[in-house]
User: Fold this.
Amino acid sequence: MSVSTSVAHRPKRVFSGIQPSGNFHLGNYLGAIRNWVNQQGQFDNVFCIVDLHALSLPTTRETLRANTLHLANVLLAAGIDPDASILFVQSDVREHTELCWLLNSVTQYGELRRMTQFKDKTSGKNDEQVSAALFDYPVLQAADILLYDTELVPVGEDQKQHIELTRDAAARFNARYGETFVLPEPDIKAEGARIMSLEDPTKKMSKSDASPNAAIALADSPDVIRKKIRRAVTDSGSAVVAAPDKPALTNLLTIYSLLSGEPVAAIEQRYIGKGYGAFKSDLGEIVVEALTPMQERLRELEANPELSQIALAAGAARARERAAAKMTVVRDRMGIGIGRS
Ligand code: ATP
Ligand code: LTN
Assistant:
């Protein structure tokens, strides 16, 4: 059987994952979730809440459970339709951990050590504080992607290196055991791929930022949103323009443009001679307006937790079917699972 046979008329297979690791922010929305929602009618989508990845940093049972359910509600509130897309929790499909171990055998220690996300997350820590799971994180990610014969992986810019590692591991596996895995492509949108911190435009907006003012959480109240934008750092000068030497304004203009649908140049035109104050105050309203409907749906979902649980159970059943079929092929190729009927 060849997995590379192309079928022109079928929608491309898409897989993406997001960690249930805290407060989802505007960067997650603009860089990832919004694109998943927009592409829903176009592709065969599998979206995964990667709770096993979240175990790579210290957490507790209560936190992980709460974050997992919160993320499910956020995704549904943002517009993921569980009938149109498969939405499930990673640990509900055991094949992910099994394939992770098998792919470890075609992944090199050296390539994992070079991963920038690993370097970022371990910087300033000594080896004793770093879990082996954090090191192996990209291999579990490769398993997620390869289990579903994924062709496209919509992610933010920061994940490009992990998709490359996935392709390398898949190619090595295919060379050793015969054509088994599809080599996935990253799908990174030029706009919104990297929303920066409101306090330091050289750093990406991140859930793990120690400062609460660096990111706008999707659940922030209107007043908090307005305040964070008012306080956001700006560049020297007073013109509202995007330019390489104006990273803070470029970031704010990108957010404005993505949420309003207006090109950056048109926004720059409108603020000629108006200064940062007027621009920031309008941007605050645009963010509030964009997030309010989602927040209302989120409150409804939170009041009815069974809705997301039903969606996740159905999603896991559908995902399990695909993953089980793939693993039957993988075990056979590798010469394992001999005693299984
Ligand atoms: P952390 O920074 O704490 O590791 P995170 O905010 O990067 O977490 P993830 O769960 O790792 O969140 O990422 C979820 C998705 O959001 C990924 O596709 C990632 O590329 C995207 N993403 C994360 N931060 C940004 C950002 N600042 N701009 C655009 N996309 C982002
Ligand atoms: N590593 C990703 C989350 C992630 C993922 C995936 C993304 C886990 N598995 C599979 C795309 C495909 C992150 O940190 N954002």
User: Anything to note?
Assistant: Residues 102 and 334 are 9 Å apart (CA to CA). The first helix runs from residue 26 to 38. The two ends are 21 Å apart (CA to CA). The chain is about 55% helix and 5% strand.
